[in-house]
Specification:
homodimer, 367 residues, alpha/beta, Rossmann fold, seven-stranded mixed β-sheet, 15 helices, 14% strand
């Protein structure tokens, strides 16, 4: 087992780890002997590095131990639990697992801001559901039992379609550059969980490919995943709307249509992983009932597996919620965690810091 | 520009290049100074390596030059055509571009063998189309204008569904281990194009991510892509049938259903690439009209781009076919190649060898 680099405030290190420049690697291939020499020289440094804590923002406890023990077991050559590199697939939910999702899913806030922007062309939305509820910030009506999913799809349809994927990416990037969280007054990309950035980097340093598996829109998440998490666009899996190829003004392009193509949530997550990765993960991280089937499919497959539920228990530094919350609803998956021996992370006690800015000594605003 | 490793008979080297063990990389990160030292030591070797021909199985000529010039232009720092690593995406069709597709698509041969295996349970297939045509090897009827696609889908439906993805992968692997090409009497995985294996390795050595974008079934291609091409399962894009999550006998699993989910051919190829990669490629390789839109979308986007059509012109060492062939039909894309300045590879004159076995001095059987 090799210890990962120490993690700074942002995920810059983890990005470098994912996509180390290939020419540099190649220079080593050119001269095997020198490479072997370098390896032998560096081995003692590597042994030293193991003493560095791979998860410095985690308090010692069952959760931290279970993650480290898992990585050590599947990467130690000769271990009965050893897993070859090409099978080291780890999947991570995004909303509530890697970044904040309260008081409302970030993509929904984006969609509502887009609704407001487009409102002059659609004044009828003021009196028409689900647009009215969205514009009024009436999340209870918006996410009402059994209608939340359809309402969100309707709003995504009118705000996320009608452009090329490149244009949509730019719209998201522009929004992320200016929008701020109502309580933390910071860009959403700063409201990612420092302990989880460390997990991402730790897994990658140990030969894992890390995939984001989001119920959110695949192209929304791709707009920031590389810079924020060190996860390249092709390792992001998510929900999508219909995209078609066409020629317009003599040029080929893709165009986004307001119909659902794929819902990457609940039982859709294992299907999305199969479509994109073609392998069953050996580790999966989630925080809500939307992650239930992903964790079941990952862990109930024989062999050494890791399932992790991030439980939001810290109302002071972040939010405390589970089975009574419409956003990030966690009920069945918490029951399943007992049955399947998943690791349940108690954010309040397991995490020394929640957000990267706390490492600079900046405090969270009071709830 | 860094020269790639020399290519042996199989694609083992390219595989190593794609997935260089991360712990080894990491050891270098641990000690930057030693790394810098090693870099300085190795620089002269790297310069030497540039003299090594990256495409040794290609004859000197326009095609080879255009490929090398493109890679040099987009990887040279400070060049007006420089492309950052994360945008270096290259896509490759499979049938007829990376491996043999005559006298019939390999996956179709597999499907027909499966039909024969399942025939005792479905004796009605003997008199029922398209099964009868498939069982009789009557490819003309099978691929008849306007019906080929539907016929293939029907046959894929009954031969590729009704099991888990893991079970299907094993069925394909077992078949590939025993099936032999009718003319070459070798396993199909030996009938890959040596010059294209070199292109894959050359691109990867220069920081490209290489994706297979096949009209064939995504899980059929994944069963051999890693070992044969050094392309991991998550970098394979292809057509797919519906897969659903379910619990059976108390365990979660995915199950394959006989309905089309996605057709990754023609205008579907750019859509499939967007779904999986989330970026427009800067280089694309194909050989038939099914690759037309992928090459247009790749090259007609401004900036330095590479489009390549592999033209099958060698009836002695392989097959010669284009617009009159039902398999690998090439007509519109050959016209478009002129308009869009794509590189057209003449297999007869541009390739020193076609298959890896020729490098061991073994001759091709006569046509």
């Amino acid at each position: 087992m090799i210890a990962p680099p120490r993690i700074g405030v942002a995920a810059v290190h983890s990005k470098a780890s994912e996509s180390m420049p290939r020419p540099d690697r190649h220079k080593l291939t050119v001269s095997c002997l020198l490479g072997l020499f370098a390896f032998l020289c560096l081995a003692p440094f590597s042994a030293m590095a193991q003493a560095v804590d791979p998860l410095p923002s985690w308090n010692d406890g069952k959760a931290k131990q279970s993650i480290i023990k898992f990585v050590e077991d599947v990467t130690r050559e000769g271990s009965p639990d050893f897993v070859p590199k090409e099978q080291r697939i780890a999947t991570f939910d995004n909303d509530g697992t890697l970044w904040i999702e309260q008081p409302m899913y970030v993509q929904m806030v984006f969609a509502i801001d887009r609704l407001r922007e487009l409102l002059p062309m659609h004044p009828e939305w003021r009196d028409q559901q689900p647009f009215k509820a969205a514009l009024d910030g009436d999340f209870k009506t918006l996410l009402k039992d059994g209608q939340g999913s359809r309402n969100l799809q309707t709003i995504v349809g009118v705000t996320h379609a009608g452009m090329t994927p490149e244009e949509f990416e730019q719209i998201v990037k522009n929004w992320l550059a200016t929008a701020k969280h109502p309580r933390f007054h910071r860009p959403y990309t700063e409201l990612v969980y420092q302990p989880m950035l460390e997990v991402l980097a730790y897994f990658r340093a140990n030969g894992f490919k890390t995939f984001i598996v989001s119920g959110g829109g695949i192209e929304f998440v791709r707009a920031f995943a590389d810079q924020t998490y060190g996860v390249p666009t092709d390792q992001v899996i998510g929900s999508s709307i219909v995209t078609k190829f066409e020629r317009r003004d003599g040029l080929p392009r893709l165009f986004r249509f307001p119909d659902v193509n794929f819902v990457d949530d609940g039982p859709g997550k294992p299907v999305g992983i199969e479509q994109h990765v073609g392998r069953r993960p050996i580790a999966a991280f989630g925080n809500s009932d939307g992650d239930l089937q992903m964790l079941q499919w990952t862990t109930e497959s024989g062999g050494r597996r890791l399932g992790v539920i991030v439980h939001h228990t810290d109302a002071v530094r972040e939010y405390a919620y589970d089975k009574d919350s419409l956003v990030g609803h966690l009920d069945l998956a918490l029951e399943a965690a007992k049955l399947d021996s998943w690791t349940v992370v108690d954010m309040k006690t397991d995490w020394k810091v929640i957000f990267p800015f706390e490492m600079k000594g900046e405090a969270s605003p009071k709830p």
